[in-house]
Amino acid sequence: MNAANGKESAMKLKKEIFILAAIIIGLSIYLVARKPDRALYELPKLPPVSGSEITRIEIGGPRANLVLSRSNNDWIVGDEKYPAAKSKVQQMIDTIEGLTLTELISTTGDTTRYDLTADKKIRVKAWAGDTLQREFEIGKTAPSFRHTFVRIAENPNVYNARDNFRSKFDQELADLRDNQVLSFPVSEIRQVRVTRGAGSLLLERKEGALEQSGAPQAEETAAAPVKAEMVWQTSEGAKANQARLDSFLTTLSQLACDSYVVDRGKKDFSAPIYQIRVTGSQDYELAIFDKLGEDADKHPAISSQNDFPFFLPDWQVKNLMPEFTDLLQDSKPE
Q1: Are strands 122-128 and 131-141 parallel, antiparallel or unpaired?
Q2: Residue 316: closest CA among 296, 288, 295
Q3: pLDDT tens figures, 66-93
Q4: Is 285 within 8 Å of 275 (Cβ atoms)?
Q5: pTM for this prediction
Q6: DSSP 8-state assignment for residue 281
Q7: At 140, is the secondary structure helix, strand, or coil?
Q8: Rounded Cα gap, residues 89 and 166, in angstroms
């Protein structure tokens, strides 16, 4: 009797083990079939794209629809052909060229959770001449903050792409305009003229004798040539305040505006309140105008190196409109 019960228990245990094993195997098969395991799919192979060959970038998104075009070695943006910020365009080109898919995220067609719906996605097309080189859609940043959800061309699947790059394409026209409005090497400047109203000040960089100090030199060295220094002075011989002038020229040499005037052209501005012309290998000019309103905190201005009027904030204008006396050394009584 006991032997029979023992045999029956052993058979029952074997049956339960078999059933449990079958369940485990079945669940494993189900999970493998349901979840796209890394070993069971291949990521799309993106054809190589050379950033140097890209000539046009089209961006369509919730903030703006923009076209960037290469013009010689520069980039322009918009129908008005505004100069584009080279650094920002280069970031886009680097992303387009280096786009790398790292993981298949979804094959269900769900776009809402990835911000790839029509009202949130950013569409990017990169062209080389008339040939479309790369097309993709950008969603939100992945939870890792090191990847971005994307879709490729007509492929409905959602993928992780390497790097966090949505912000590089999520731009408006004003964001992509080049704010550099004046640029020149300070070392080449030989003349500075500032004009306020009917008055003006002209400073020229000239060679002058280096002042000597101390006891007279020995006879054998008396005939040695005297070193010369470059000095800034007026035509009457009044010397410039070197530190103030250096600061003034440095500010001018890499001048960036706050924003651009969108409803007027350069010809719409006249009677500047302050004018600056510096001369080196060519003339570089800046004209600053009265504010457009009583409550405005920016001055409109125009530059010889930019085809469009722009705004300079009050603090910047203050540095660019020194009094004539500020640019000259204090006169010292003998």
Answers
A1: antiparallel
A2: 288
A3: 999 999 889 999 999 999 999 999 999 9
A4: yes
A5: 0.75
A6: S
A7: strand
A8: 14
